[in-house]
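quick one, two chains, predict together pls
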Amino acid sequence: MALVPEVFHWGNYLEAWTKGNFGTYFKNSLIITVAALLLVLWTTSMTAFAVARTDFPGRRPILYALVTTLFIPAEATLVPVFHIAKGLHLLNSLAGIIVVSVAGGQVVSIYLIQAYLRTIPPDLDDAAKIDGCNLFQRYWYVILPLAKPVLATVAILTFMGTWNAYMLPLAFTMARPELRTLPVGLVAFQSGFAFSVNWPLLCAGAAISIVPVIALYVFLQRYFVSGIATAGLKG
Amino acid sequence: MADVVLRNVTKIFERDVVAVDNISFEVKDKEFVVLVGPSGCGKSTTLRLIAGLEQLTEGEIYIDGRLMNDIPPKDRDIAMVFQNYALYPHMTVYQNMAFGLKLRKYPKREIERRVHEAAEILDIGDLLSRKPKALSGGEKQRVAVGRAIVRKPKVFLFDEPLSNLDAKLRVQMRAEICKLHSRLEATTIYVTHDQVEAMTMGQRIVVMRDGVVQQIDSPLNLYNRPANMFTAGFIGSPTMNFIQGTLSKNRGGSLSFSDGVIKLDIPQRYNGRLQGYVGRELILGIRPEDILNPEFGEGAPDTVTIWAKVEVIEPMGNETFLHLNTGSTSLVARLATTKMPRLEEEMKLMVDMRKCHFFDKDTEAALL
């Protein structure tokens, strides 16, 4: 045994990618994660903008109601979500996983983004109004570019949450193994061998699964830190 | 350019907080009007109402003869400069200045021309590619002004634009804004809490207190003929001295004012207007510069002598502020720096009664 292997077997990665179906799982994970990420960023930033930067009756009760749902564990909602998805014919489809992932990632993201947006001086909205912005232009041209740090934070949290999700993709892909995501595929791969797990392929698959997360974290790290720091200052 | 008319304007915020209470005034075309008053007097709210950033509770606002009550800010053809500059941090100076024109879909070449023209006027041509965080306070303020002038709006609104600058830069920018106004001949409404800014910049000044207009007049008229005690105390630095006392009639028919310790004879010409107040309490107002050194004031007509103890001496170089105590009241005198008294010294001074002011004790309205 050695921490650093004496010989690197790069062939295991190719084998995991093709024979172990990790290529398909990777593609599924990527489609779900990227779609969920974009949808979460788009919808939550707009909601947070409305809550933090516009004035409408019931704004606070809406935020409090959203935050209250954080106390309900995801496991408790799995069965009702499954039933609703079944009724909407969303089971056994990537679209179904995307829709449920987006819905599940809303509240924390809205809370983080709105807390950050409250720290942006209100004079900027006034200046934008006088410059000629309508509501959407104010969101798009002025507030959204200034929210980059917190959007990066939300992007990383959403990416990691969706990429590593196990229960939801498992429940939604029972009947169609070709739609499995990487975590589901990894566990299925491990349990597929009753007595002798193919550890080299399993480890190669696991290594493949963490590459995008590390890459994203390295790319967005500076935003991640400042986003968390600032989002925590004011709420 | 255009005139701005406010008619019976009221703004009530949540929990019945009355920020602006039934105010009316008119700003003429090309005029420079300053709204001045202490914090919370409603001057910034009034400006925001004109800009359309706040919704009116009651009243009417007209710009260039057009009712603006329900018109959004972008369609009022106004530009505003904010106290905190409100530059977009993610845009360069050029983009900040061009943003309003871009939203209004001006041709690119026209945008370029206007931005460079404004940059030249404000001497910020070499800053155009910089982001706001790379600018000093004064430079940011210039860019904020530049952003306003590129649009060539009908009305310029300034909301305490110099408050964040240091004293020296404030004086410099004050002069530059005045020069800019003469050059652009734009109708300008300027909000400040600084009475020096108001006096030096405004063609007319609107003095506000608790959401109510106290007086509208030219700077010198406000100084020389304040309508009430608030304006008298707010305009002028050091502030006007107020002494509460009683008016009495002397044997010869002349009037005297006394607070129990000092007695001041009132010039004959005020008799008519003060006759009704004989035997009643009222407030006398004396500006610090109307308390004179005996060497300058002795023997002058309508001056009276008082004695006061020197409590604080504030030498300003060209003049000195003396904080005095007459035994019944505290006064501030502004004297030329000649021979200085010592602290605690009992000092003889002359009060120029020709320039005194009298106010009703209850209504605080000026009586002369």
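The mean pLDDT of chain B is 92.
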